[in-house]
Amino acid sequence: MDNRYRAKFINSLSGFKSVNLIGTQDSNGQTNLAIFSSVVHLGASPALVAFVMRPDNGSRHTLDNIISTGHYTINQVSAQFYQAAHQSSARYPKEESEFTHLALSETYIRNIKAPFVKQSRLKYAVKLKEILPISSNNTQFIIGEITHVICDESVLKDDGYIDIEALETVTVSGLDSYHKSMRLARLSYAKPDNFSTEISLNGSVNVTTDTKGKS
To answer: DSSP label at 2?
Structure first.
């Protein structure tokens, strides 16, 4: 395949992916903002997330800043600024902040050495834990621990579920196709003798019937 055709084709195979802006700054306070579609959950206790850093092209400002300060922020992208978020993939010089080019606002909380995106409706601070090299394609797996979360409490449900659809969080397929989501249902915890059924948005479990007809 042609290289560009192959990139779009293979990137589409994994389906819908999360889309986030990672905010960093260097030791001199120069800020940087970059879009990533590879952020994944690793565990809840401790609260770990990870993302994939592409092979070194000589200008990995995000990774350099994370190594320098040990801190970064992950900011979910919503429908209100997805075009600006996409533009952050442009290769701006290190001395020019993407925040300025994209008309997005920096915001900070005490003791966190990285900027948040003010416009993001769900964002969290992360402290670097380890970097795992992936020899197969010269990428790196960046693992961090969540230390602070900023989110509108109205979307936090009784059982801890966050209704990201209410925040108009977008998703991405391939390299450049952005989508809104439409929830089908929340489902109950799956057990071998009890087929999953719909539960309420708040996590309430309704009376169900198991495979033997017992309620």
So the answer is: -
